[in-house]
Amino acid sequence: MRSLCALLLLASTALAETPLEELRLLGEHPVAGMAGGNLSGLALCNETLWAVSDREDDRLYRLDTEAAVWQAEAERFAAPHAPSTPLPWGLRMRTWVAGQVRGGGLDFEGLSCDAQGNRYLVSEAHAAVLRLSPMGEAQWLALPEAVVRQARASGMLLKFNALLEGIAVDPAGERLWLAAERQRRGLLVLHRQRSTWHCSGGCVLVSEGGREPGPAQLGDAARPRDFSGLAFHQEKLFTLERQAHRICRRQLSDGAVERCWSFAAEALAESRRYPPDYGQAEALWVDAEGAWVGLDNEGQVRADGEQRPIVWRFAAPQGGWGNRR
After folding, report:
1. Where does the secretion signal sit in this chain (predicted)?
2. Nearest to 72 by CA among 80, 63, 81
3. What does R_g of the chain's alpha carbons equal in angstroms?
């Protein structure tokens, strides 16, 4: 039995140390016209690429991808008063003060859409989801309080600026996933029944803490596990893990990792380096041909002088996102 356990441990260690396949960069696109910068979410809805900023509470951006330099065109909306959530008073007050100082009191940190053209924005400040119809009408989803209660009971949503960071919706608009950012990170799932949302068998899919080695380009220093973006594609979840500079495919049933791919080689090229802790990958959308990854540079200038938000287009891995290699 001990020999078997030792062999399993060695196999697990070898798998963890196997270098990840690097995604191939097809294009790099600076985005002009995002007045507040801070690109925090991307979604491809009916052939239109949309972006959201966590510093602006009243607009989405339609990206004109045909222009030589991508242009962001604002679509404005009026969000109703945010619903109350069972986040503690102290955490809500710190978030409110931060929003007054830096802008973006709702702190939209993720974007998704369904096949009907509805857009879904997750508010980190309120642990809530806003739905925008194709006509731009805004409505908060009726999420159960159990989402926040169960997340906090599992060690998530406990720290300021480490709340909900990603959202994914299936094409039918009947299943919704949320990503808790860090310390602890996790995945939550809800199902729609008519006009309300429920946790079927529990809200929490994944809750995990700890640290793990970062890319070799950063010296392999251990960094907190995190999620900064979330996408749904072909009955799989895809997580953007910015500290590790990778995208991982996960099972819908329990959020277990099936396969990961790295984008560290491109992201950490010398010409693309930002000051420490800036230029983070915050936005993710996955389709059959590849992945869109958006960077939140918070107005910082990178090594080559570029100061605008950036969107990268990576090719799908050889054999597609569903390959088992």
Report:
1. 1-16
2. 63
3. 19
Pick the CATH number of 24-315 from 2.120.10, 3.90.1570, 3.40.50, 3.40.1360: 2.120.10
Model-level pTM? Answer: 0.92
| Structure-token match 């059959």, residue found | 288
Domain ranges of the chain: 24-315
Amino acid at 35: A
Q: Cα–Cα distance between 164 and 178 in angstroms, integer?
A: 7
Structure token pair of residue 153: 């009971």
- Nearest-CA neighbor of 91 among 25, 27, 9, 151? 151
Provide the pLDDT for residue 96: 81
Q: What is the DSSP string of 127-172?
A: TEEEEE-TT--EEE----THHHHHHHHTT-S-STT-SEEEEEE-TT
From residue 175, alpha-carbon distances to 32, 271, 313 in Å are: 33, 40, 26
Our CA dihedral for 77, 308, 47, 186, rounded to 10 degrees, sits at -80
How many of the other CB atoms lie within 10 Å of CB of 175?
A: 18
